[in-house]
Amino acid sequence: MHSIRAAAVAGGLDSSAAAALWDLRRTNMILPAARVLTSDKIGSGFVIGSTENGTFILTNHHVIKSHIQQTDIWNPVEQSSKKVDRFLPVSVELFRYDERGRHTQTITTSAEIVSYSQFGDQWDFQGDMALLKLKAPVDDLAGANLIAEEDFLSEVRLLDEVVMVGCPDGSAMPMPLTGHVASMTEERAGVGLLLSQLFGNLGSSGSAVYRYSVDRGVYEVIAIHSMTDGRGSLTDKGHGNFLRLAIPAPSILDFLNRIGYGHLVAPESPADCDDKAEGELPPSAKADDEAAPIGNSSEHIASNQTDTTDPSGVDASDDADDKKSSEKDVDSDEDGADDDKHAGGSDGGNRGTDGSSSDDTDTDGGSGDGGNSDK
Length: 375
Fold this sequence. Notes:
Elements: H1 2-10, H2 15-30, E1 33-37, E2 41-51, E3 54-59, H3 61-64, E4 68-75, E5 80-87, E6 90-97, E7 103-117, E8 129-134, E9 145-146, H4 149-155, E10 161-166, E11 175-188, E12 191-200, E13 208-213, E14 218-228, E15 241-248, H5 249-258, H6 270-275, E16 299-302, E17 357-358, E18 361-362
Parallel strand pairs: 5-16, 9-14
Antiparallel strand pairs: 1-2, 1-6, 2-3, 2-18, 3-8, 4-5, 6-7, 7-8, 10-11, 10-13, 11-12, 12-15, 13-14, 14-15, 14-17
C-alpha cells in the first residue's frame, strides 16, 4: 500500500491502483467521520471503535456541554453536597458514499453521552473530549485507527502531512482538509497539544486529524481538533483560520483508559498482524467483555427523554439553513473569562490570551464557546 501511495504522489497511478488508494482513504478517514448536533451546537466527531455492546463516537466536550446538566445534591447525613450529572441524548449523523466518493446517504441516529473530560479554562483544561455511544446499531461503519502512544512519540514529526476530516461551518457532510504539523510543543494548563496548519471554519471541533503510516500502511488518528489558534486567524470575526490546536493521541488513549474504554482502540495481537495480507485494512476494534462503567467521578442520571432519530429537536434537513453560523464576534480577554461562563455559545465566543477559541458552530447563528490559553 505504501508503494501505491508513493506512486500517487508521483502522479503515476493506473486506474486500479487509484481505486485501491481511494478505498484506503475512504475506509480509514471518510467513513468514520460524523456530525454531532445538540440543541445549540453543531460539531464534528468520528467513530473511535465498536464492540458487541455498541458503536462509540469521540467528539469534544464543549460541543455537547449544553446536554450535560449538573445539579448539586445535598446529603443531610454527611452534611455535604455533590454534583450529579444528567445527560441528555445528542444527535449524530453518519454518511455513505459511492465508489468515487460522492455522497449518497446521511444516517441520523441518537447517541448517549458516556463520559467526558471538560474543556475548562486556561488553568483547568482537562482535555476537551467526550465519548458518545450510538443508541441504535448502524451497519457497515468503519472505525478510525488511533496511533499507538509509542508510535506517536517515535514517528510524528514537525512538517508531517496531515488530513483533518470534519464538518466545518456546519457543512452537511464531512470535508477533508490537508495541511501539516506546525508545532509539537504547544500546551494548555499543562496538557500538551498538537498545532497543525489546516484551514477551516467553525464546526470543526471534534474532527479527527490523520497521518499516513508508512510502516503500517494505514491512515491513523494522531489528534482530535479542539480549538483554533489566534496566530492563524485571517479575520477578527472568527471565520477562516489556518492554525488549529488538537489533543494528541496519547491523551486520547489516556482518557479512554481512565473511563474504562481503552479496549475500543486496543492494538491487534502480533498473531493477527502476521495473518494479514500486505495492505489489508484492520477491522474495527472489538472486545468480548462487557462495556466498562462510566468513569467520571460524579454520579450520572440517565435522561428520561424519549429516544428519537433527532433527540435534539432539530430537523437536520429541513432546518439546515437555520443552523449555519454567522460571523464570530471576538470578546475581550481582559477578565480571563473561562469557557464554563459561556455555556451555549450565546455570547459569541471568547478569544483567549493567544486568540485561541473552540471551533464548534452554534445552531442559533452564534459562534462556539471560547477559551483562554496559557501559552
